[in-house]
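Researcher: I've got a protein sequence and the SMILES for pyridoxal-5'-phosphate. Could you write out the 3D structure of the bound complex as structure tokens? I'd like something to compare against our soaking experiments later this week.
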Amino acid sequence: MSEPIIYELSAPGRKGATLPALDVPEAPLPDQALLRDDLPLPEVSEVDVVRHFVRLSQLNYGVDLSMYPLGSCTMKYNPKMNEDAARLTGFSQVHPYQPTETVQGCLELMYRLQEALKALSGFSAVSLQPAAGAHGELTGVLTIRAYHVSRGDTQRDLMLIPDSAHGTNPASTSMSGMTMVELRSDERGNVSLDDLRAHLSDRVAGMMLTNPNTLGLFDEHLLEIARLVHEAGGLMYGDGANMNALLGIAKPAQLGFDVMHFNLHKTFSTPHGGGGPGSGPVGANPELAEFLPGPLVVRDEAEGTFQLAMPEHSIGRVKSFYGQFAVMVRAYAYIRLLGAAGLREVSEMAVLNANYLQSILKEVLPLPHDRPCMHEFVLSGQIEGAPDIRALDISKRLIDYGVHPPTNYFPLIVPEALMIEPTETESKESLDYFAQALTQIVAEAQTQPGLLHDAPHTAPVRRLDEVRAARNLVLRWQPTPKA
Amino acid sequence: MSEPIIYELSAPGRKGATLPALDVPEAPLPDQALLRDDLPLPEVSEVDVVRHFVRLSQLNYGVDLSMYPLGSCTMKYNPKMNEDAARLTGFSQVHPYQPTETVQGCLELMYRLQEALKALSGFSAVSLQPAAGAHGELTGVLTIRAYHVSRGDTQRDLMLIPDSAHGTNPASTSMSGMTMVELRSDERGNVSLDDLRAHLSDRVAGMMLTNPNTLGLFDEHLLEIARLVHEAGGLMYGDGANMNALLGIAKPAQLGFDVMHFNLHKTFSTPHGGGGPGSGPVGANPELAEFLPGPLVVRDEAEGTFQLAMPEHSIGRVKSFYGQFAVMVRAYAYIRLLGAAGLREVSEMAVLNANYLQSILKEVLPLPHDRPCMHEFVLSGQIEGAPDIRALDISKRLIDYGVHPPTNYFPLIVPEALMIEPTETESKESLDYFAQALTQIVAEAQTQPGLLHDAPHTAPVRRLDEVRAARNLVLRWQPTPKA
Amino acid sequence: MAYVPHTPADVDAMLTRIGVSSLAELFATVPAEVRFPPIDLPGPQSELETLQELQALAERNIDVTHTPWFLGAGAYQHWVPSVVNHILLRSEFYTAYTPYQPEISQGTLQAIFEYQSLICDLTGMEVSNASHYDGATALAEAVIMAQSAARGARRRVVMSGAVHPEYRATVRTYTQGMALEIVGEDDPQRPLADLATLVDDQTSCLIVQSPDFFGRIADLRGLADIVHAHKALFIVVVDPISLGLFQAPGALGADLVVGEGQSLGSALSFGGPYLGFLATRQELVRRMAGRLVGETIDTDGKRGFVLTLSTREQHIRREKATSNICSNEGLNALAAAVYLSTLGKSGLRQVAELCYHRAHYAAQAIAALPGYEVALTAPFFDEFVVTCPRPVADINAALWHDHGIIGGYDLGQPFPGMERQMLVCVTEMNHRPQIDRFVAALQEVAR
Amino acid sequence: MAYVPHTPADVDAMLTRIGVSSLAELFATVPAEVRFPPIDLPGPQSELETLQELQALAERNIDVTHTPWFLGAGAYQHWVPSVVNHILLRSEFYTAYTPYQPEISQGTLQAIFEYQSLICDLTGMEVSNASHYDGATALAEAVIMAQSAARGARRRVVMSGAVHPEYRATVRTYTQGMALEIVGEDDPQRPLADLATLVDDQTSCLIVQSPDFFGRIADLRGLADIVHAHKALFIVVVDPISLGLFQAPGALGADLVVGEGQSLGSALSFGGPYLGFLATRQELVRRMAGRLVGETIDTDGKRGFVLTLSTREQHIRREKATSNICSNEGLNALAAAVYLSTLGKSGLRQVAELCYHRAHYAAQAIAALPGYEVALTAPFFDEFVVTCPRPVADINAALWHDHGIIGGYDLGQPFPGMERQMLVCVTEMNHRPQIDRFVAALQEVAR
Ligand SMILES: Cc1ncc(COP(=O)(O)O)c(C=O)c1O
Ligand SMILES: Cc1ncc(COP(=O)(O)O)c(C=O)c1O
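Model: Sure. Here is the predicted complex with pyridoxal-5'-phosphate in place.
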């Protein structure tokens, strides 16, 4: 049975909510032309709503059900404590424009989070305002732009971006008004130093680098890259999506980055919500700090109070208010519970898990870059003796084994990429199960490829026709016209 | 994939919880002989626990998924607001032995609930202590016993109970030390007046009657029955499981009952929890009030405060503390939101739903007592042309249609009983779907009985072997001995 | 109206189908003279207003999370991991009925099977049922089981006076129609060896509690032999958290172990709903009250769970059932299963140790206060008796009004003559600064 | 350690399989000189202590539920039915990623499809995307869409000064590298007809807000024609709750409708996470930023939902994508879908009416106070400007310190010169006694 659309459950006159009676005189309504006559929303009861969305939820797969090794997404367990913390009335029922004396708790939490991110990254300032990773990128790139502009270095309009980068990096660069230059990767999965040298010039504003990169590899020439870019007058932007490999292992600022975004919704365990909300704070070194978006939280040492303040040459605000506060609560709770030692263990176990799985799976599928990985690794879904099988088929078949597929077709430089990030919250048993499933699927591909082509077999729906969806756009429910 | 037992997920040294460090000096432990050496509990991580129980939950069917017409159980929608109310810190984090001045909010809520139940039932006192329906029965029967004993009427040791009664009625009677006498029902589903008259004597302590009875029928001689029992010196106990038919329709005290239990977990929408907690307050008329279990909440009119007090000749307490407080919060919230008008509408719609469904389904399956019903009705699962099909087969097949089966084999006086209680929270669409499913199943029974015998086909497990479970008792997990 | 999905058009169509012309007609069998009575209740109100009203009531209570707290006496403030409530909010669990249809109730059934297993391991017993209303009623049902085991032929029950007073009261209420003789309660300080001398061949059971109501760990060694020599049953009431550290009664010959499981993941909630647990030996299983979940297989041979031995229960046995209990405390049992799984082997021990060491730290500090006395000789777990220089009622009033502290339990309430005895409880929720503050406050309110 | 399931034995076995002898060896590629730096953070602590610490921080804030409140200005206190949070706690929803694997993400996908449908119906538009970070960024993206629709050939943006100041700031930040000329903001009181005269053939879009930042309902009639005559796009910023009562911008010729969806079921949470919505006409769909869910069928012909038109997005189009947005506000969009479904046709209208009538009641009462002025001529929804006898900063301080009331928004903050202007917000959460109390307090603090 497939679940109806909420509108299909509607019946005229049905109600889902009770509201207080009007306790003041009715005011006259303005000119009828300003008012709407029809509000075509559904009419359903509370029980309809609950059943509908509970049933929908059961059609979904989440970390709370099983392993979710979606590469680049750090789908770790989301501690339940954090959900409770974020829902405390004193956090959830607070207005952003209250007098600061009435929100000292919120401000102190933000301040402590800024400090913790600084401690982990080595940056000298952090803005919590950006709402997600890509938002942090735009912020960072605009910050770099503002820096150059402030120095009169206005010709710097190029951003170097490796071919392994996430699509948001080029897109963020475009939004900033700059132009991207793609750099090749070498056969060990590093940025090609030759290609880098070839593109350095006084038009280079900076470089956007993900490290460990999207192959899960720590660039072997990282310090050298940073030196070269800096020598050319450029700045290093860090895409911190892969920070889960580095907590207590290395500080990005010491690795040569000038500005970087964090993903609280990856590294710091806040739930991804089926597509957000995330949170993408940006850290910067002392030269760039004054350009960060604000307001930031500062501490008035004399009074012991916390206040909001705009950095001196801020690029401006990148959204309303102060950022994704309820996400920050969760991330702070996580950092506070684990402490320095716990966070380092997070990265150690994340990297251990990835290497363990890689050591097993490289015997099952091609591993284009065969060297120790960090928190994730990328296999190629090309199976000997099964030329028709694509990475997508393997992924869909994994669904039948009850685990979420890896990321497909990213990074672009690996053909039929299967990007696997187990995260530290998976146990050895869980990894062994995954390895076993993939091994079995590869065998199936060779003997019964139909099993893969027709997969998934056990999901709530069979394989969906994405081409049809794009050709014949149906983006909203509409009543079927009465015949 | 079936879900492992939590012990099967255990690994030595794995931890699911973090605890504060010891901040006081260690005290010497007592004699080793008083201490245990092994604590054979599972060792799992927090993520193991969450996934395990989330996956288990998905194997369950609840009201939040779809219709649950389990007769006699009043499986109505459980409003979400009530869950929030019961979890308010000021209710959930309060100790029963706090000074009463620090729990005035709890006491006032209990007081208001007592008053509301009195208003709905016409009784003059209500004890909120009993924990469930059966517990209320025991309370009520002991109250009746205490009344007779207090009058020196000690020979009264018989309790009249109709053959349609729920099994808890005879069981409660036995626990009180009294003996039950079963009364026949007549062909219209009423208590047989002749049989009643035949059993009245000065040994009769009282009668336990469910009204509407478990056939969903309002006894046509109710006032007469009460008169006869009272004349014989007996008292009328009401099993209030079916109160959902009577809110604002009739007050049990005015129908002749002397003492009755309410089921907050049925009539007043508190969730059943997969088998409790319930709550079974008992109401009594003025003569019986002094025997109720306590403490009750009384109002000090002078001070405007609320206090706990034991009724003068109380049978004693029937459990520790004051009853299922968090359940009371939910029930009170429900009563308060609906108000007098809303509660009457509850019963009206419950009765409307049952009659509507009965009017359709009596054309599909035999309806042994064909007259207007109250909030539920009982069909017989005997299908013409399908002699091998039992009520259970019909029920199991309903599972494949995505709805919960009715109650089976109760009441005992209807062969192959299918007891159907839709409740007022089901919409007409929902009832029509159910009727259609049952109609289709009856047709299947006649043409493809195997479909029913082998049902369910779509549940997490196939039909389970209950005989094997009882013969080969496995009531706990134990490690398989290492070979 | 809220929670009712009927539109006016629905109602009309349904009445037509039924063949009546009004809703009132549906109630024709209700005697006219009492039909549709006025109900003296306020009118409907919105969800928003209702929740605000309840919030206001809730805020008229003082809650444990905002106050230092030293009150136990049968209901305890213990840490509940966040996961517990998140699982309890899974509505497939809480909006289900008792699992009468096992094929769509495997979640509840397996969870209860796990609960039974965990209780067995904790208590050292062979069988646990699916729950009772609370510790008090579990004890009452255990006494009735002992009666049944003796086939009603033994009328004497020996019960320690150091069993929780409300449990003892509940046993008396439950058994008031059974003509039992309950002895041994008179002196709560009576040594157990002494108490055991009351057991004779007319005795169905001996009931002791450990830690007892006064917090003392009882030495149960040898008692089972005495009881069994008289073919009676040995019933032990325990605090489940103490079993993280102390010997399981099963290892000491208990026949029935019962107790209050509130500490295992249920909120204090002003006294309920709580969780009665009851565990026993395999041979008594058919006399056991309550529900039991057993393992079986489905028609494909796959493991599954069902309610079993229902022939003991009232649906089938009616007046001959082992008990009348029907709805029990399923959701609290689920909470206990989640709690015990999360804490696990090392976590439960850690909780018990924190309670033990902090309680002893507090006891020592209070013992050193002028005017206060603490009996430090008998072993105790997380509760102990303090003899105060003034009546506990006065001390507690001063603690609350002047120091914002909720003191211990006033033993003068159930035990006339003990008005100066306070039962102090210290758990893992009371950290050292809180204990120190309590001790300092006690000193100040000494006179 | 918490949240990490590895036992020492696991770690050993895994290291062996990998072929290294220590964890440290796994990090050999990290330059030795910066490897394993000390981290200046406190040590680990338990869940109990962490939650207590957070609770203490939370209690240092004053929250809306305990205080009369008249603050809006872009973030609103509205009633959220209990069902919303219960659905948000379904962890199949909140622990999922963006639905890249549609076969196991139908829950998220269908919910977003429903969200898109609801936003279309509410705004009167044809297409909605799956969300933006908030209202401000939705507006910035709408401006970029307008640029793109003009193929980058038009550099002028006409924006009303009565658009939320933080939205205007965000537009400027986003577009700072795009060499745009943004005009019209200088005078927030400028009549819209006047503003429209700034639209020329170099203009990509006209941006107005209704209700505007000062609460006024704008009469949008005729504006679309002017804008379209110049082949520019008409962008309207709206308050979604006001659409329960007021005309949908889609019916008034808007090309893009954006706004803050926090009011639709998201908590205030000190400013985030909120929900940006963006809806447009069918012909602009390929220029649209953000995710889109579309209907399709599976291989059995069964209805299902997928992310679609991803060719617009950065995974495929990279530097040519319509936007860089990737993670958006999925869970807030789910909240909005649940909220709008629960309130429904009649409920949303009722909420809007309560806001409207109560705000007008308050406005009239305040207008009657000596020293205060309220412009009652222009139609408004639930916010209005009060001219105070003293600076708003002083009035608010007195309201808070002497009366425990959080007053309105100080318009002097964003608009120098408006220090005596207070933006007062009244919603269905402010019942009459609260309003009366506020009015009385205003009178008292007048000097
Ligand atoms: C490497 C990388 N960079 C950037 C992003 C964008 O982050 P967000 O989705 O938070 O905007 C992602 C998201 O998956 C990513 O993997
Ligand atoms: C008619 C009737 N009486 C009594 C009971 C027992 O109620 P409880 O389960 O609350 O003990 C039930 C329960 O189903 C019932 O239906």
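Model: The pocket of pyridoxal-5'-phosphate (ligand 1) is lined by residues A 72-73, 132-134, 166, 168, 210, 214, 239, 241, 263, 278, 280; D 326-327 (CB under 6 Å). The mean pLDDT of chain C is 96.
Researcher: Great, I'll pass this along to the crystallography team.
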